[in-house]
């Protein structure tokens, strides 16, 4: 089988094919379609290596459909393949190094996300952009009002426009923040639409509903967890998953040191999921009833090491709990969490009544979320009704 590598750049793709340890063909093109004569359906089968990047999944699917064996390379271990050796790194050399590695074998592979989980991740990215933009605008408006000598009452982000409209502000101040307020009025219903789309995608993933039975975990966190992990059984234990998510301490104990040196967490892997798990940990510590074992365990760490360490430790443990629930097909069980080891939860028999109760609690979360979506969609319809009718449409109505 042919040994081929592609270096996927933003504007160009570098193609390299090797045979017998020597380069036999190179080409630089603008798009993958330009390589159809070399890699198209009518070409001979090849083993093609590409580095994991934004375009990797789409290119992977296209090459697979063309009949090739596609190897998506783990970029965190790309140096061991010779990429960037001796300080020389460009697209042509990277493609050549990858092609030689294909011929040698032993390429470290990255996981290729399943198509439906990709759709969930893309929808989460849209929702995240909208939510972060809304939060930024709210912060900016509050800052401008403070600079002008006005302070608004504390409120949720969703209720900010209501509080702002009820505040006694001078006309010139309202005019100053008017463009941001207009943008906020459009963002809230768009977020509701994104939530509804995400809800629809999650209906095809029963595991997401099970994960929401855990404390502090709602639909967004559960969906993000599933879209990143993809398959629970590809991790052998909970610590391996925590390392994949960057929630384990960094280590520097080489050089024959007798004492293990641990530092801050590595922060490798998906940053968004790591943030969401940290937010869930904060929620458990703030709002969960005191008898939950996860909260009690984190409180004990809080007393010894401080709140920040406790939150990160709880986020790491929560990732293991969610992984074990997914692996074993169970709902959250506080008793199991109380006796769980650092290696993950052991499978315990759960009564039908216990699972039913947990799923009932998850349905309460779902109804609360649906009310929020309906409220946002109602704002969309209200905005549409209040929008002025154009002259052409007004003429057609008469």
TrEMBL record:
Compositionally biased spans, kind Polar residues: 388-398
Residue intervals of the Transposase IS110-like N-terminal domain: 5-146
Region (Disordered): 358-398
Residue ranges constituting the Transposase IS116/IS110/IS902 C-terminal domain according to the UniProt record: 210-288
InterPro entries in UniProt: Transp_IS110-like_N, Transpos_IS110, Transposase_20
Protein name per UniProt: IS110 family transposase
UniProt source species: Sorangium atrum
């Amino acid at each position: 089988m042919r040994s081929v590598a592609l270096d996927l750049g933003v504007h160009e793709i570098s193609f390299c094919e090797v045979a017998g340890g020597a380069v036999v063909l190179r080409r630089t093109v603008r798009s993958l379609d330009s390589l159809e004569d070399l890699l198209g359906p009518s070409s001979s089968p090849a083993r093609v290596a590409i580095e994991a990047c934004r375009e990797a999944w789409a290119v992977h699917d296209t090459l697979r459909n063309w009949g090739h064996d596609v190897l998506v390379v783990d970029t965190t271990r790309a140096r061991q393949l010779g990429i960037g050796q001796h300080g020389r790194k460009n697209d042509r050399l990277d493609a050549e190094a990858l092609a030689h590695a294909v011929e040698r074998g032993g390429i470290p592979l990255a996981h290729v996300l399943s198509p439906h989980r990709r759709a969930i991740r893309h929808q989460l990215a849209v929702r995240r952009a909208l939510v972060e933009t809304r939060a930024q605008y709210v912060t900016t408006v509050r800052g401008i009002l403070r600079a002008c000598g006005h302070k608004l009452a504390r409120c949720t982000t969703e209720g900010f426009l209501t509080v702002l409209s009820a505040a006694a502000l001078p006309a010139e101040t309202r005019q100053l923040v008017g463009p941001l307020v207009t943008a906020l009025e459009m963002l809230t219903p768009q977020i509701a639409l994104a939530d509804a789309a995400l809800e629809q995608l999650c209906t095809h993933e029963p595991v997401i509903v099970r994960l929401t039975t855990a404390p502090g975990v709602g639909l967004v966190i559960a969906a993000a967890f599933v879209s990143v992990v993809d398959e629970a059984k590809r991790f052998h234990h909970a610590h391996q998953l925590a390392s994949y998510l960057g929630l384990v301490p960094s280590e520097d104990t080489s050089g024959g040191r007798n004492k293990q040196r641990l530092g801050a967490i590595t922060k490798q892997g998906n940053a968004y999921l790591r943030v969401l798990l940290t937010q869930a940990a904060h929620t458990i510590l703030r709002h969960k009833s005191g008898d939950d074992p996860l909260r009690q365990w984190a409180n004990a760490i809080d007393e010894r090491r401080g709140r920040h360490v406790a939150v990160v430790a709880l986020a790491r443990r929560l990732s293991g709990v969610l992984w074990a629930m997914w692996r074993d097909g169970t709902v959250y069980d506080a008793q199991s969490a109380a006796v769980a080891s650092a290696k993950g939860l052991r499978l315990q028999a759960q009564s039908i009544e216990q699972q039913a109760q947990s799923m009932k609690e998850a349905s309460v979360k779902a109804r609360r979320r649906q009310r929020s979506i309906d409220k946002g969609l109602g704002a969309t319809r209200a905005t549409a009704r209040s929008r002025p009718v154009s002259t052409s449409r007004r003429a057609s109505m008469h």
